[in-house]
């Protein structure tokens, strides 16, 4: 566990990594505040610790997890890291946001701050919602409730950061895109608008087939779903978790 570092530096490195994972800003091989031994020192990177080793240790401890692009088999430098434990993730989020209002609270504005914190929760929940959705799609695929031979489930986006799709499922030895899903952290989701946007972004998928299953994941309600559109809500996921033997948990069309 990084024995070459002092106890203080180890604590600092792991703390830095966890805080930045909670913010969703860590990509493979780069942790703000750390540098490899052969990397030239910079003002903001005082600790010599290989970021890859740090992230490997945190992944082994199940504190963080790698999110691999669905279209990138094997090792990919485009993979990102996120907190694996949502409770720990919320801890870092809560105290990070609370720090922005500390001076106001100390000045006696404490009673007016909680509504602002509650509004901030929506910003926090979005990426966790997408992660829950990816896990749900993986469960459906493993149980044979989607298309056959799903071999990868993950996000997709082009190298320029455009055409972001929350969940793409790849099928078969050829790893052909089979499903494209969009997750929205809103109470009501307009299906026609989301579908049109998703179809446009899916054109960037490599080897996109003519028949690509499109799905929308909404928080409470999918409004005006089109024909043959798969829809899933949070209630569906919770029901599947609490009643795993209930056969009614097929995605709705």
Summarize the structure.
This protein has 253 residues and is α/β, with parallel strands linked by helices. The protein contains seven helices and eleven strands. Helix 1 packs across helix 3 (86-100) and helix 3 packs antiparallel against helix 5.
What Rg, in angstroms, do the CA atoms define? 21 Å
Instruction: State the CATH architecture of the largest domain.
Output: 3-Layer(aba) Sandwich
Tell the overall outline: globular
Major pleated sheet:
5 strands, mixed
Distance between the termini: 49 Å
Number of continuous helical runs = 7
Task: Give the neighbour order of strands across the main sheet.
Answer: 5-6-7-9-11
CATH class group of the largest domain: Alpha Beta
Oligomer: single chain
Walk me through what this model shows:
There is one protein chain. With 253 residues, the protein is α/β, with parallel strands linked by helices. It folds into two domains: 1-112, Arc Repressor Mutant, subunit A; 124-249, Trna Endonuclease, Chain: A, domain 1 (3-Layer(aba) Sandwich). Helix content is 40%, strand content 20%. The chain is built from seven helices and eleven strands. The strands form four sheets. A five-stranded mixed sheet has the order 5-6-7-9-11, with helices on both faces. A two-stranded parallel ribbon has the order 1-2. A hairpin with a 4-residue loop joins strand 6 and strand 7. Helix 1 packs across helix 3 and helix 3 (86-100) packs antiparallel against helix 5 (114-142). The longest helix is centred in the middle third of the chain and has 29 residues, at 114-142. The protein is globular and about 55 Å long. The model has no long low-confidence stretch (mean pLDDT 80).
């Amino acid at each position: 566990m990084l024995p070459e570092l002092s106890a203080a530096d180890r604590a600092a490195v792991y703390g830095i990594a966890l805080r930045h994972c909670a913010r969703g800003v860590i990509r493979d091989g780069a942790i703000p505040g750390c540098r490899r031994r052969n990397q030239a020192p910079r003002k903001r990177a005082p600790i010599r610790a290989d970021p890859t080793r740090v992230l490997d240790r945190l992944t082994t401890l199940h504190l963080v997890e790698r999110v691999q692009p669905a279209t990138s088999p094997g090792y990919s430098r485009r993979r990102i890291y996120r907190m694996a434990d949502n409770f720990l993730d919320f801890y870092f989020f809560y105290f990070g946001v609370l720090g922005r209002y500390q001076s106001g609270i100390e000045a006696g504005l404490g009673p007016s701050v909680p509504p602002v914190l509650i509004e901030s929760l929506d910003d926090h929940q979005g990426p966790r919602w997408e992660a829950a959705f990816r896990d749900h799609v993986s469960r459906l695929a493993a149980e044979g409730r989607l298309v056959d031979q799903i071999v990868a489930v993950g996000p997709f986006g082009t190298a320029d950061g455009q055409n972001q799709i929350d969940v793409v499922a790849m099928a078969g030895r050829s790893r052909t895109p089979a499903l494209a899903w969009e997750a929205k952290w809103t109470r009501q989701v307009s299906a026609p608008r989301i579908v049109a946007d998703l179809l446009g972004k899916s054109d960037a998928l490599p080897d996109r087939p003519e028949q690509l299953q499109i799905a929308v994941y909404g928080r409470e309600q999918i409004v005006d779903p089109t024909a043959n559109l798969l829809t899933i809500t949070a209630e569906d996921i919770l029901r599947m978790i609490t009643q795993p033997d209930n056969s009614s948990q097929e995605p709705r069309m």
